[in-house]
Amino acid sequence: MFYQFENKDHGLAFDPFKSCVVPRPIGWVSTLSPDGASNLAPYSQFQNLTFDPPYVMFAANQNTRGERKDSTVNAERTGEFVYNMATYDLREAVNLSAQEVPYGVDEFELAGLTKAPSILVKPFRVAESPIQFECRYHQTLRLPGKSVMGTVDIIIGLVAGIHIKDECIGKDGKIDILKLRPIGRLGYYDYTVIDNKFEMVIPGLNEKLLAGLEGAAGKLNKI
Predict the structure, then answer these.
(1) HEC string of 41-83?
(2) Which CATH class is domain 19-198?
(3) What is the rounded distance in angstroms from the CA atom of residue 141 to the CA atom of residue 186?
(4) In terms of pTM, does the model score above 0.85?
C-alpha cells in the first residue's frame, strides 16, 4: 500500500505511522520547576545523538490543551533534566506518570516512586531505575504542527553525569541489558521489552570505526 500523509487515505482502522519506526527508547524525564516542584514524564520520541561529548534529546508534543509540556518548560527555565531508564519492572509506574495531570502534581508521588538526589543537577532521579543521566539543557528545536498536539519541542541536553547500578554490570565489564529489561514503545498502545540480543561487528577491523560503534570516546582519543 501507499498513502500520502496529507490525505490520510491509508484505509486502515488505526494510523500506521508510529508502528513503522520501532522500537523507540523511552526517555523517562524528571525535571524541577523554578519554584522546586518535581515533574516526571515518559517520552517515546527519545534518543542519544552523539557520544563525544554525549548528547540526548526528547521530543515533547503539546498537551491536549495546546500547551507546552511541563518537562519542556522546566528544562528551559532551569537548564537541567534527568533521563531515567524505563524497565519492564517499572512499566506500571511509567504508565502512571504518563497521565496528563494539573501543573504542580508530583508524578513521583503519583506513581509511588522514590526520589534520589542528583550530584550535578537539581532534578531528582528515579531511585528504582537502574540507569540515570544527569543532563544540562542545550537548546530547543520547535517544529510546527497542524493540530492542537501536533507542535513539538525537541529538547537537546548534554549528559554531564551517568549513574549505573553496580549489580547491572556483568563480569565482562558490559551492562547486562537482559537483566535490566528496558522497555520500548511500539505503535498503537503497544510496548516491547528487550529479552534477547545478538552481536554484529562491522567487517574490516577499522579501529576508529569500531570505537565509534562502541561509543568509546576514550579509545578514539588514543587511536
Answers:
(1) EEECCEEEEEECCEEEEEEEECCCCCCCCHHHHHHHHHCEEEE
(2) mainly beta
(3) 24
(4) yes
